[in-house]
């Protein structure tokens, strides 16, 4: 059975991962679309900061809320799905604020929301995006009833953070540094933590030279204020980690076939397996198809004046097809038992529902791609 | 101050005067568009034209040294060619260098920053990691040799991809807004001013002749301007496919017709992409699609030639 269909038969969460520019979002959207066509209602959610998903779905914009793609939009593309399809894009800041509003003790909410560290942490800054995505995935998975959630992740370096996000938040809450900062203040029952009362420590003074005194004070306040939320965060982090490892969660690794970009895909594949995540398939996107032998003969029969252009074009196509074939062979060797699903390069970019549906034929195994002989 | 000069060289990058007198070149764009190849090519060309050039990757899986046919350089600035140095800037080493610069004494650094508790703590100061990465790179712009000349005449950053580039280059501004006065805020102000100074810095946006990458380039240009106040200088459209077939190419063979039609579709997309990018009001340099066995030194040399050639 086609590995993606097999994965959907046993999973209700599917996560696409891979480096930038390989068509990850397109693959995520195409899988969600196809699932809906086949009667499995779906939601596709992207946390990629670039606004690609709306683009692929022919929607003007996507917000933090799930938007249903209308019957009319489908009809325009000549499609009639048997179940609904929704799409959303994660709004970091809003998801963080909702989290604080839901979880923080009432007397701390305002203090947290107004803290400068919280504001930068929640609006753009590194690392927190991945955590929020996990939080959202958990919310969607537990509070809604989607037969299938397809989650698109940011490019590789950050997707690694993504896997690590639940652990990191645990580290944050559970490490010696927070205790070192918080314990004296908590013990004293004080709100405004005076960092430099911690024995006027040499360590604290030196860090302050680096960051400025007030910075430490603000950070300490922030940590103090969220400390009441520790248990909740901790529980959630364990739950999301469990969700990633669950039987019903599958990963699809997306890559291009270019040999020099495959190291990243192979590295990521290893990492997912080490982390006990199940990789249902590796999608090799935008594969150049081999040049049929008969075409060379047909070029030879052209009038001499017409030959060079066609000859050149066939040579270029052949070059690209063989290059891709070498990449695919390398991937096959390195990733052993994980099945590969090949999707051809199309003339035009996939940027509408029709194109997504077309793409899904390859993902679903309705159509299969031949690979060139690698050669040189 | 940082500008003062590249006067010992007449001009570099004959075809793109937008870059020729800039000390800092920031190369960015969507993932997979060929940023590293372009950064490597610009670095190679710059070094060949006599500028002492440093090319920096930012906490990435290292590619530039390999593209230039050299072993990985890691986090130490390493000479890889005549006039050419490379480094892959990583947070831990950058943090150490930055702290040492501010604290002056190794012993203090070891006592404080190698303390496990402190290290944890530093991880959670928002953006400190990005600040030290960027800080290390920009610091090299200030370094001088004993004779008073710059240690590096030009620095080229192979910057993170779109969304992360905005985050990365916003960090100095975010620090200025977030962190109360102190050494960190002072440094951040200096960095921000440098990044937005069009006399020192040029941003090169890299794109591909396809719909989504072009959309992203246009959005990136706008976001850099509105969120970071960085004005882009040049667009490089990689993988350009010029039109080859026309109506007179009408073979009887259906297979060959398909070949011509396919080629023309891609070429039309290249032309349409070029037109859309031109609406940014910046010069767009096209680099043709290369048919090389792999992206190695040979490919980089070919791309470099587009920037050093005659007008």
Q: Overview of this structure, please?
A:
The complex is a heterodimer of chains A (376) and B (311). With 376 residues, chain A is of the alpha/beta class. Chain A has a domain at 3-93 and 130-163 and 243-363: P-loop containing nucleotide triphosphate hydrolases (Rossmann fold, 3-Layer(aba) Sandwich). Helices cover 56% and strands 11% of the residues of chain A. Chain A has an eight-stranded mixed sheet, with helices on both faces. In chain A, helix 14 (262-274) links the parallel strand 6 (249-255) and strand 7. The longest helix of chain A has 29 residues, at 307-335. The radius of gyration of chain A is 25 Å and the shape is elongated. Residues 185-199 of chain A have low confidence and may be disordered. Chain B is of the alpha/beta class and 311 residues long. Chain B has a single domain (22-308), classed as Rossmann fold (3-Layer(aba) Sandwich). Helix content of chain B is 49%, strand content 16%. Chain B contains twelve helices and eight strands. Chain B has helices at 17-20, 35-48, 64-67, 91-103, 106-113, 116-123, 128-142, 162-178, 183-195, 211-228, 254-278, 297-308, and strands at residues 24-29, 53-58, 78-81, 84-89, 154-158, 201-207, 232-240, 283-288. The longest helix of chain B has 25 residues, at 254-278. The mean pLDDT of chain B is 85. At the A-B interface, helix 7, helix 9, helix 10, helix 11 and helix 12 of A face helix 4, helix 5, helix 6, helix 7 and helix 8 of B.
Shape of chain A: elongated
| Name of the level-1 CATH class of the domain at 3-93 and 130-163 and 243-363 in chain A | Alpha Beta
- In CATH terms, the superfamily of chain B is P-loop containing nucleotide triphosphate hydrolases
Q: What is the makeup of the main sheet of chain B?
A: 8 strands, mixed
Shape of chain B: elongated
Mean pLDDT of chain B: 85
The ordered H/E elements of chain A are HEHEHEHEHHHHEHHHHHEHEHHEH
Give average pLDDT of chain A, whole number.
Answer: 80
Q: Quickly give the structural class of chain B.
A: alpha/beta
Tally of strands of chain A: 8
């Amino acid at each position: 059975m086609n590995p993606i269909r097999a994965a959907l038969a046993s999973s209700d969460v599917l996560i696409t991962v891979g480096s930038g520019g390989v068509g990850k979002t397109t693959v995520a959207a195409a899988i969600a679309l196809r699932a809906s066509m086949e009667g499995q209602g779906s939601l596709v959610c992207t946390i990629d900061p670039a606004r690609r998903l709306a683009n692929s779905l022919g929607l003007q914009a996507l917000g933090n809320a799930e938007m249903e793609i209308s019957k009319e939009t489908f009809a325009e593309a000549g499609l009639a799905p048997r179940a609904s399809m929704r799409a959303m894009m994660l709004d970091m800041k809003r998801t963080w604020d909702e989290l604080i509003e839901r979880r923080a003790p009432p007397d701390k909410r305002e203090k947290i929301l107004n803290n400068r560290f919280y504001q930068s942490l929640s609006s753009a800054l590194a690392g927190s995006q991945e955590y929020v995505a996990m939080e959202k995935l958990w919310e969607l998975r537990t509070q809604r009833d989607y037969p299938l959630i397809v989650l698109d992740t940011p490019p590789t370096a950050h997707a690694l953070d993504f896997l690590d996000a639940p652990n990191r938040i645990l580290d944050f809450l559970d490490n010696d540094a927070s205790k070192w900062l918080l314990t004296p203040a908590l013990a004293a029952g004080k709100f405004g933590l005076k960092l430099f009362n911690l024995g006027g420590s040499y360590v604290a003074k030196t860090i302050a030279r680096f960051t400025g005194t007030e910075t430490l004070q603000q950070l300490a306040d922030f940590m103090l204020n969220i400390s009441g939320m520790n248990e909740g965060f901790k529980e959630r982090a364990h739950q999301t980690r469990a969700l990633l490892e669950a039987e019903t969660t599958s990963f699809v690794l997306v890559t291009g076939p270019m040999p020099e970009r495959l190291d990243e895909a192979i590295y990521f594949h290893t990492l997912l397996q080490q982390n006990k995540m199940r990789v249902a398939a590796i999608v090799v996107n935008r594969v150049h198809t081999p040049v049929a032998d008969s075409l060379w003969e047909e070029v030879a029969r052209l009038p001499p004046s017409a030959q060079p252009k066609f000859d050149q074009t066939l040579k270029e196509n052949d070059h690209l097809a063989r290059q891709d074939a070498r990449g695919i062979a390398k991937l096959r060797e390195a990733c052993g038992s994980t099945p590969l699903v090949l999707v051809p390069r199309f003339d035009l970019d996939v940027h509408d529902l029709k194109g997504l549906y077309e793409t899904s034929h390859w993902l679903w195994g309705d159509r299969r791609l031949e690979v060139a002989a690698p050669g040189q | 101050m940082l500008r003062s000069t590249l006067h010992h060289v007449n001009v570099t990058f004959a075809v793109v005067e937008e870059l020729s007198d800039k000390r800092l070149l920031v190369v960015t764009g969507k993932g997979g568009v060929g940023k590293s190849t372009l950064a490597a090519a610009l670095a190679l060309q710059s070094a060949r034209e006599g500028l002492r050039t440093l090319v920096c990757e930012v906490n990435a899986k290292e590619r530039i040294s390999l593209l230039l046919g050299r072993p990985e350089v890691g986090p130490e600035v390493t000479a890889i060619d005549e006039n050419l140095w490379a480094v892959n800037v990583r947070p831990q080493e950058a943090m150490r260098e930055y702290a040492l610069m501010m604290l002056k004494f190794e012993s203090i650094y070891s006592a404080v920053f190698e303390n496990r508790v402190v290290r944890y703590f530093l991880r959670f100061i928002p953006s400190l990691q990005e600040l030290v990465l960027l800080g290390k790179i920009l610091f090299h712009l200030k370094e001088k040799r004993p004779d008073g000349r710059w240690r590096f005449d030009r620095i080229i950053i192979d910057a993170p991809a779109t969304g992360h580039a905005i985050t990365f280059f916003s960090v100095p501004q975010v620090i200025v807004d977030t962190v109360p006065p102190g050494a960190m805020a002072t440094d951040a102000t200096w960095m921000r001013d440098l990044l937005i100074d069009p006399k020192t810095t040029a941003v090169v946006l890299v794109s591909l002749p396809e719909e989504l990458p072009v959309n992203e380039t246009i959005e990136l240009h706008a976001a850099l301007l509105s969120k970071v106040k960085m004005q882009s200088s040049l667009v490089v459209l990689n993988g350009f496919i010029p039109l080859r077939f026309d109506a007179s190419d009408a073979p009887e063979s259906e297979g060959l017709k398909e070949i011509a039609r396919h080629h023309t579709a891609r070429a039309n997309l290249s032309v349409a992409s070029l037109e859309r990018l031109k609406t940014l009001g910046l010069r767009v340099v096209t680099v043709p699609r290369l048919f090389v066995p792999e992206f190695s030194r040979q490919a980089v040399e070919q791309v470099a030639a587009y920037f050093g050639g005659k007008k």
